[in-house]
Write a structure and sequence with these properties.
Radius of gyration: 25 Å
Helix content: over 70%
Oligomer: single chain
Number of strands: 6
Number of helices: 16
Strand content: under 5%
Distance between the termini: 41 Å
Order of helices and strands: HHEEHHHHEHEEHHHHEHHHHH
Largest sheet: 2 strands, antiparallel
Structural class: mainly alpha
Strand order of the largest sheet: 1-2
């Protein structure tokens, strides 16, 4: 009798279905790759499919975490892919011009230039949305379109390659046997969770997303909150751009971060954050990003044709979103249980009727 309420409470948890889909996708790979869950130590580094999923999913996790706070305020940021390209282009362009590309001073200065450009993009988006009142999808579309052109201007339409060991560490290096990018992602996620769940900042973000005007009337600086989340989102995209260009030791202004904004939005939605804003889940976003990356890995593992992988990905995302919908679950699973639930109260209804008849005879 107690298992049904517990199971119902478990299935109603916002992380249940994303985690369930993640586990299913991981298990699907086993028949095609028997050692899929194997993790090996080679040259002091851990290797394996699970490590690769986290490694290649790190940029998406970063972008999705920043996107989560933007969506929580009722906005959207379509410019993150262009910010990824701009950051990588500026950083690699500066490093490639140095006589000693491995000099720490030059690498740190290049990182500062790239991240500063990302922050400027975030300030621009926040200014258009919060100060100018432009719809977020339009305001961020400006950098989405123009930003990638700026990245190609920086690289002169070419792929800039670098040979810098310190820079390679960010996205392609290892530390304590694990990819260094995992530690960067863990640090960013941990700081985000602490600031949004251990302070009042998270409540302020959710209140602005719930009703920005009401938040302003009670004294919350909603404009500053909106500008802040767009800057944070752009900063996360900038760090992701450093990872991507560092992993390949090259900057590609045309393809770096291409369509990552769509994957980030899907990861946020899969994680249970509503696009209308008002509430968010950082943990759900991380799981959603891992679902997207695992799905990409699964597509290549089972041999799905390249030209149909986007359709396959869309189908899985639709299934996850439907399973998260309370109305959909009520219609599908409620219909199966409807007959049993309706038949159970029948004895309770007939018993009072049997007891009532003698009273009527006495009267």
């Amino acid at each position: 009798m107690t298992t049904t309420p517990r199971w119902r409470a478990l299935t109603h948890h916002h992380l249940f279905w994303p985690v369930a889909v993640l586990v299913i996708l991981l298990l699907v790979n086993v028949p095609f790759t028997p050692d899929f869950f194997a993790i090996k130590m080679t040259d002091g580094h851990l290797y394996g499919s699970l490590v690769s999923i986290v490694l290649f999913g790190s940029p998406l996790i970063l972008v999705a975490v920043g996107m989560t706070l933007v969506i929580a305020t009722g906005g959207i940021d379509l410019s993150v892919g262009a910010v990824v390209a701009i950051t990588g282009a500026l950083t690699c362009s500066y490093i490639s011009d140095q006589a000693d590309q491995s000099a720490l001073s030059g690498v740190f200065l290049a990182l500062g230039i790239g991240l500063a450009a990302a922050i400027v993009c975030g300030l621009w988006n926040g200014f258009l949305v919060a100060r100018m009142g432009i719809q977020p999808i339009i305001a961020t579309l400006i950098i989405m379109v123009a930003g990638r052109g700026v990245a190609q201007l920086i690289t002169d339409g070419q792929i800039i390659t670098v040979n810098s060991e310190p820079y390679k560490l960010i996205g392609g290096g290892y530390w304590l046997t694990l990819p260094f990018s995992i530690f960067i992602v863990a640090a960013v996620v941990a700081v985000t969770v602490v600031l949004t769940r251990r302070t009042a900042l998270g409540l302020l973000v959710e209140s602005v997303g719930g009703n920005a005007e009401a938040s302003r009337l009670v004294g919350i600086r909603s404009m500053r909150i909106k500008i802040m989340v767009y800057v944070f989102c752009a900063l996360c995209a900038g760090i992701a751009g450093l990872m991507i260009s560092s992993n390949t030791s090259a900057a590609d202004g045309n393809n770096a971060g291409l369509w990552i904004e769509l994957d980030a939005i899907l990861a946020v939605v899969i994680g249970g954050t509503p696009l209308l804003g008002g509430r968010f889940s950082i943990g759900g976003t991380v799981v959603g990003a891992l679902v997207i990356q695992t799905l990409t890995t699964t597509i290549y593992t089972i041999g799905v044709p390249t030209q149909t992988n986007l359709v396959f990905k869309a189908a899985v995302v639709i299934i996850v979103c439907l399973m998260q919908s309370p109305k959909f679950r009520a219609k599908v699973f409620g219909a199966r249980l409807g007959g049993k639930q309706a038949a159970a109260p029948a004895p309770a209804e007939t018993a009072p009727a049997a007891e009532a008849s003698p009273k009527m005879e006495v009267s």
